Structure prediction request, 202 residues.
Amino acid sequence: MAEPGTLHDAFIDELRDAYDAEKQLIKALKKMAKAASSPDLRAAFESHLVETEGQVARLEDVFGTLDEKARGKHCDGIAGIIEEGKGVMEEDFDEATLDACLIASGQRAEHYEIAAYGTLVAWAQAMGHTEAADLLQQTLDEEKAADEKLTALAESGINQEAADQAHPDEENEDDEEEMAVAAPSSKKGAPAAAARRKGARR
Ligand SMILES: [Fe+2]
Prediction:
């Protein structure tokens, strides 16, 4: 009977999964950048695309530190997330809504990667693969920053723009009052406007 696999085997398996996931994401990010209407969102996808190419190279270095050949294994998880994102891009949404949906898809992918790299770093550390752990930590940090960037973009106007398209009547009811409420800071503007809408519905 064959020896049971070890954590090291599972680790190499997860690395192959991540390697394939990054390659799938390179293709997806190109499409997402093209589909984005907001120049800031497009720039965010394009810069993460460049970062992702670096992550592929970094994974090759990780394989190298372990004397393993860089090899991918089809990542079903990210394939599913990308497939769902494609479905959204095929819908006939207004521009702001499509941007909001692209952010939602992008964040699903980031969260998947954050989970994957979090595990990889922890396993590498537990097994004493410190060089690999350091490299994987760099990618984990980049994924977290990319996720935060998308949150910032969503909250700095894209979600509100899409929401205003969805509820234009409520938005235009009392522009002066709205400006006064929303003026103090753009971050507080969204909940304040939402609260005002609730009031207007009564
Ligand atoms: Fe990545």
